[in-house]
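Consider the tokenized backbone below.
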């Protein structure tokens, strides 16, 4: 006999059955939607996604660098270093193998000096005193008046001989005229007596020490032209120089090899 009909007892009826299913889990144990939602969040709201960590090959702004960039940069650096090393080695090799460059030098020999002392000149005029007593290795050996030049209109004139003490001689004829015009006329007369060089046929051997004559030019003093000169080969082993310096006319005869140097060293 059932209790349902027992007096004083409420009728017992079965209530709704408790759910027997469990919340489904997402695969791999990952919580389903809503998991990790803050307690204060509404049931329908979802949590904001967390930013993904930056990758090592990102440029810091979320953009990924190409995979080929790093090897290319490394290759360029290696090539630059190799080129610099090769350039240094090549320069070193060239410097070591090249012959040293010679430096040209000019040797200036001292001017020769006389081996004997000059004699005293008798004339004491200003013109006579201006005439040198030594020229290169030659020293005055004698001095006398030049009668021929005096007859030609010179105010004073001298014939002087200089010697090197070993058989070499230089002869100088120096004349002082009244004016540059008279000196020019005498110079032209003397120059007209100089020998004319014969044409070079190649039959005569050329002396390498012989000067290239004839030679002519201006005589200058302090940058001012005071006359002209002519130097010629006398054809007998000697050379002759004739020049004018203002009112003075001079003629110098010397060994052919010395004539140009003696003329330049005479100093008048």
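A designed sequence for it:
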């Amino acid at each position: 006999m059932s209790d349902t009909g027992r007096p004083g007892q409420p009728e017992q009826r079965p209530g709704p059955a408790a759910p027997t299913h469990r919340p489904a889990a997402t695969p791999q144990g990952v919580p389903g939607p809503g998991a990790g939602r803050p307690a204060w969040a509404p049931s329908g709201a979802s949590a904001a996604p967390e930013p993904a960590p930056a990758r090592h090959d990102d440029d810091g702004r979320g953009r990924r660098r190409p995979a080929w960039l790093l090897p290319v940069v490394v290759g360029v650096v290696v090539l630059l270093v190799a080129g610099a090393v090769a350039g240094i080695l090549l320069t070193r090799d060239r410097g070591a193998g090249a012959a040293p460059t010679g430096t040209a030098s000019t040797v200036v020999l001292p001017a020769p000096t006389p081996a004997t002392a000059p004699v005293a000149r008798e004339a004491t005029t200003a013109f006579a005193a201006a005439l040198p007593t030594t020229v290169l290795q030659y020293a005055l050996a004698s001095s006398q008046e030049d009668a021929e030049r005096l007859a030609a209109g010179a105010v004073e004139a001298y014939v002087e001989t200089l010697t090197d003490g070993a058989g070499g001689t230089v002869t100088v004829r120096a004349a002082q005229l009244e004016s540059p015009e008279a000196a020019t006329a005498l110079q032209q007369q003397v120059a007209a007596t100089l020998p004319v060089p014969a044409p070079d046929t190649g039959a005569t051997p050329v002396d390498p020490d012989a000067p290239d004559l004839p030679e002519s030019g201006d005589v200058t003093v302090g940058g001012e032209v005071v006359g002209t000169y002519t130097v010629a080969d006398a054809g007998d082993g000697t050379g002759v120089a004739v020049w004018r310096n203002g009112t003075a006319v001079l003629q110098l005869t010397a060994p052919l090899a010395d004539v140009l140097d003696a003329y330049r060293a005479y100093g008048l």
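The two ends are 178 Å apart (CA to CA).
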